[in-house]
């Protein structure tokens, strides 16, 4: 029997009331999409780890300081913080995100050679690296909506509000982002097999052991 | 009669943002409109590939956030 999962709002109330375990659950629930959102913007594992910590530290201060606004979803709120911090990082550093081309960064490699055949792992990693490059090549507005919706799980209305455009503009940008990605993928042999024979199941993420 | 759908509505369908009645309408249309079904399949394939990029931070990083939370006192 499936156990009932407490809502984010319930966990936040418990956390504010002093239950640290509630925050642990919140972090567990949201860490992956927040981290992926940051990684796709900064493309540097060490920076992404720092920004992930900054994001949650900001959330801790806001919640424990009694300033958390119950309106809206926690998931959208935390992703907006992460997104803003990642963008601010580049503004501050005046760095070009495309400079870091280390797309084989081990943060993205959740499967070890032992878990999957070596050849399959290499192919998968090459495919993922290429896909990350394709995302980086999208026009900035399309990339922003794609990251916020697909990884940040913000609704299109929330994205429209956060970026100051209409919902139809946000939807249009997402549509073009997916179409552009699909066209570019179709033009590259590395994506050929998986597009014709898509896998039936999602990969099982394996927790990496810190090295 | 096959109802026509805007591309924006299709995107909302792909991301489960349509109300139940509109979702059913679009699913009916997908059965009878090969062009719409083909567009939808293309978008779904792109969407599926994106799912593979999700990643998880190292345990040390999340442990450090938890430690911070436990020791943080409201000023």
TrEMBL record, chain A:
RNA polymerase sigma-70 region domain location:
26-95
Taxonomic lineage from the root? Bacteria, Pseudomonadati, Bacteroidota, Cytophagia, Cytophagales
Coiled coil location: none
UniProt similarity note: Belongs to the sigma-70 factor family. ECF subfamily.
Origin organism of this chain?
Hymenobacter cavernae
Q: Which UniProt keywords apply?
A: Sigma factor, Transcription, Transcription regulation
Q: Tell me which Pfam families the record gives.
A: Sigma70_r2 (PF04542), Sigma70_r4_2 (PF08281)
What domain of life is recorded for the organism? Bacteria
Matching InterPro entries: RNA_pol_sigma-70-like (IPR039425), RNA_pol_sigma-70_dom (IPR014284), RNA_pol_sigma70_r2 (IPR007627), RNA_pol_sigma70_r4_t2 (IPR013249), RNA_pol_sigma_r2 (IPR013325), RNA_pol_sigma_r3/r4-like (IPR013324), WH-like_DNA-bd_sf (IPR036388)
Protein name (Swiss-Prot/TrEMBL): RNA polymerase subunit sigma-24
SUPFAM superfamilies linked: Sigma2 domain of RNA polymerase sigma factors, Sigma3 and sigma4 domains of RNA polymerase sigma factors
Task: Tell me which residues make up the RNA polymerase sigma factor 70 region 4 type domain.
Answer: 129-169
Alphabetized NCBIfam families for the sequence: sigma70-ECF (TIGR02937)
UniProtKB/TrEMBL annotation, chain B:
* Source organism superkingdom: Bacteria
Q: What is this protein called?
A: Zinc-finger domain-containing protein
Name the species this protein comes from: Hymenobacter cavernae
